[in-house]
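Annotated sample (chain length 213).
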Amino acid sequence: MSTAPVRIHATALVEPGVEIGPGTAIWDHVHVRGPARLGADCIVGGKTYIAYGVEIGNRVKINAMVYICSGVTLEDGVMISAGTIFTNDRLPRAATPDLARLRPSQPDEHTLPTRVREGATVGAGAVVGCGLEIGRFAMVGMGAVVTRSVPDFHLALGNPARSVGCVCRCGEPTVRFAASAAPPPGPVVCAACGRGYQIGAGAAVTEAAAVVV
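Output written by the structure step:
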């Protein structure tokens, strides 16, 4: 675990109740609402907003101008690229049905959590829906609109985002899906680093023994 000091830019607003792990850097004009938790050795880029109740693991990189709302959890090693927007309500309204008063901003029965699993990447300008999961070491392409969960090690692109292939832990694609079907079950090897994977039924991906290349 890091023993480096926490670095908070003079223009950042970090509210009481925010836990920050050692070695984490929070840059200019960031706003972190409390309570929230950021692990060790994270980077939070300029002008990012992190709402109360957000849980962020260790060695997470969040680029500039990211919006992370209540109900979001980012596990260890996650990459959130610039301009990403998370959401937490499928039926948002500003006011009550009679328009007599504003709806409260606190989480309620309409708030749906989203979890980004360890090692996953969300590309620049993506919009992530609520009540879903982005799997371990999955990769969401830039500008994607994520409306359903992304399986482990899958590459998801487009609007709405759909799985078009699989990626390695190192980020390199390992296989691309045909337009009409997922690949047949079997082993695949990353040409870049030699890590091995097994593609099962429904294109589920599991890690296999490493292969030397």
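Annotation: The longest strand covers residues 162-167.
Annotation: The mean pLDDT is 94.
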